[in-house]
Specification:
FNR_nucleotide-bd, FAD, alpha/beta, 24% helix, two-stranded antiparallel ribbon, Rossmann fold, 5-stranded parallel sheet
Length: 250
């Protein structure tokens, strides 16, 4: 947890997987939010400024029996996906080759510049974003545009994903969804990757991102007795009636 000392509030951020170049340093992906007190505070600090952090707090332990993870990430929710992928894939050996498939949604192409989907075609995306259903906004009126390779240099997170794919060839696949290109994660996208799963057990779906994104995908988390609880699985994942999949909201 990072603290904003003036307001005495904190925010949890998931560290990125360790990098060989950074040694024992902790790395975080924190996007500046115009309405986020902690992110605005952190982005306003000069390099080298001491900060107060607490943790780590383990929110989800990935069982050693897990063989396949589908990670549904919205925006900066990609950081937990990379950490989960690192945790799962480093267990790989000659007889255990776990798989991770990431569905990553972003508002703008620049957030995932250079990212090219591994399995998704233009016809396989939903035609309206999750927030139009949460906030009753009108869906886009233009036809979907296929996600293709960006002409700009890969973004930081795309480079992190590509590094993970290079380290574990054949075990990591990613599909990119970009709101401004009218590509959105829907039931068909989730059904496609769950039905293609090769394992009959040890399967997890992890959902991470803004609260509204998590609620739309898997239902909201709940507060009870001063603790945040998972709450029942709802949203479009419940509508899919998936069997043999453990669902966890981050």
């Amino acid at each position: 947890m990072f603290k904003q000392p003036q307001l005495q509030i904190g925010r949890d951020y998931t560290p990125l997987p360790p990098s060989p170049e950074d040694g024992d340093s902790l790395r975080f992906f924190i996007r500046r939010d115009a309405f986020g007190e902690v992110s605005r505070y952190l982005h306003g600090l000069e390099l080298g400024t001491p900060i107060e952090i607490r943790g780590p707090r383990i929110e989800c332990e990935i069982s050693k029996d897990t063989r396949q993870i589908i990670f549904i990430a919205g925006g900066t929710g990609i950081a937990p996906a990379l950490q989960a992928g690192h945790t799962l894939l480093r267990r790989a050996n000659s007889t255990n080759k776990p798989q991770i498939h990431i569905l990553w949604a972003n508002r703008r192409r620049e957030d995932c510049a250079g990212g090219v989907s591994d399995t998704m075609g233009a016809e396989q995306s939903q035609t309206s974003p999750w927030y139009t259903r949460i906030f009753n906004r009108s869906p886009p009126t233009t036809a979907p545009t296929p996600v293709t390779a960006a002409e700009t240099a890969p973004s930081l997170m795309v480079r992190e994903i590509e590094a993970l794919k290079s380290q574990y060839p054949g075990q990591v696949t990613v599909d990119y969804y970009v709101d401004e290109e009218n590509q959105f994660i829907g039931k068909e996208a989730i059904r496609r990757v769950t039905t293609s799963a090769s394992e009959s057990s040890g399967k997890m779906i992890l959902v991470s991102g803004p609260e509204g994104f998590i609620s739309y995908m898997a239902g909201p988390k709940l507060w009870a007795q001063g603790m945040e609880l998972q709450g029942p699985v709802q949203g479009i994942i419940r509508e899919l009636e998936l069997r043999d999949w453990t669902v966890w909201k981050l």
